[in-house]
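Protocol step 4 of 6.
Sequence for GTPase Der (Brevibacterium yomogidense) entered exactly as in the expression construct, tag removed. Do not edit the line below.
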Amino acid sequence: EDDLELLDAYESDAQATALVRPAPVLAIVGRPNVGKSTLVNRILGRREAVVEDVPGVTRDRVRYGAEWGGRPLTLVDTGGWDIDVRGMSSRIAGQAEIAVSQSDAVLLVVDVTTGVTSTDEHVVRMLRRAGKPVILTANKVDDERGEIQAAELWALGLGEPRTVSAMHGRGVADLLDVIMETLPEFSEVDDAEEPGGPRRIALVGRPNVGKSSLLNHLAKEERVIVDNVAGTTRDPVDQVVELGGKPWKFVDTAGIKKRARQASGADYYASLRTQTALERAELALVLLEANEPLSEQDIRIVRSATEAGRALVLAFNKWDLVDEERRHWLGREIEKDLAHVEWAPRVNISAKTGRHADKLVPAMEHALKSWDMRIPTSRLNAFLGELVAANPHPVRGGKQPRILFGTQVSSRPPHIVVFTTGFLDPGYRRFILRRLRETFDFTGTPIQLGMRIRE
Ligand code: GDP
Ligand code: GDP
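Step 5 output, structure tokens:
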């Protein structure tokens, strides 16, 4: 059940290293239908990214691990980019903008068969502001004729347009050489965006659970909800609120209300907003409705938060509506459906009356402290030594895997790797996790436990 916390064994030292020094990130941007997915598939050498023949089909940012010349890179496919359409497409543009800010270089894909559009020009301006290296690619250059059309793209002022046919593979190897020359060896993206700034919170939960009410209560004012126009800075969608004497940044708060009431695409929109907010946040404050049974959607949102590796606090809202009987059932539901996050602090609040809203801050602080925690290698190995001595791994087929040593390779969230002489049972790994949580107090953070088998 809590497989999220158990990673598979790493196949190579390079893989284990990549956890500490992540591969460089290439964001792929461009208007819808220029062939971004086709190019991603070509680079991956398989059909994995979704290719749609419908202009304007939107999709999430998707990350793929790729390799060229024995070097790893991460591709981020950003979906369509169309600034002329408001609403959902501008949200996707926002996604692309975030992807750019979290990349080491950008591949701008233009379709030679349609040429440069005003959207392309707008994108170029945005990319200039972002200050990342940009590689310009002219796609759909299926033959010599396209080369001539591609020459027009010099006008974008991004240097030489690299011509490819994503569909037929023409020019893609040369393009990859240029990409690898442009990218640093390891990612230099600082994912601790705005160091020293306020902690970043994603307030998430299904529609009508009380997110806006809570935010309004915390901010103690009716907020004006700003419409984030694509291409402008993404900051207006965030809101900084002072709580317990400290500023906290609630990310993508504009997305909380915007369009939530619109019938068509509302679910898609809500889940997209949840994903974006989670990716930018350090902690997920998941709001659940205390007076109604937990729904599948609730569980899915909790799962997205842990999968995104965020610190987690569960807030049961509308507590003013909860009676004794409901309280009883809620306890049962939590045991059944939220057992995999029993480590997350739970707070019972009412956005309406303000009940216990002051308990949110200590819960969030505790969770973030765990999320940031680094256990010194010596302490970790003392712990593992004692644990293994008292509870050795069961013998399997005459063999007994031994734990050689362990190390915490990263934090935010904590990621621990144990080096072993054989495959550890999932049950035994869960046991290690449980003991880790008890010993070091990892309240409020998911933990990743990986295994590296030494022959
Ligand atoms: P995206 O929206 O930018 O990801 O575009 P897709 O990868 O979904 O491609 C849009 C359409 O362009 C699809 O019908 C592709 O088959 C087509 N396409 C992509 N690359 C090429 C190419 O190199 N040459 C030609 N002729 N068509 C292409
Ligand atoms: P959102 O869609 O998650 O932003 O939810 P809203 O903040 O718009 O709240 C949806 C409805 O629930 C509104 O009618 C609120 O007044 C109501 N609501 C929110 N919090 C509470 C609460 O703590 N108690 C009660 N009784 N109602 C609440």
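Step 6, annotate. The longest helix spans residues 266-280.
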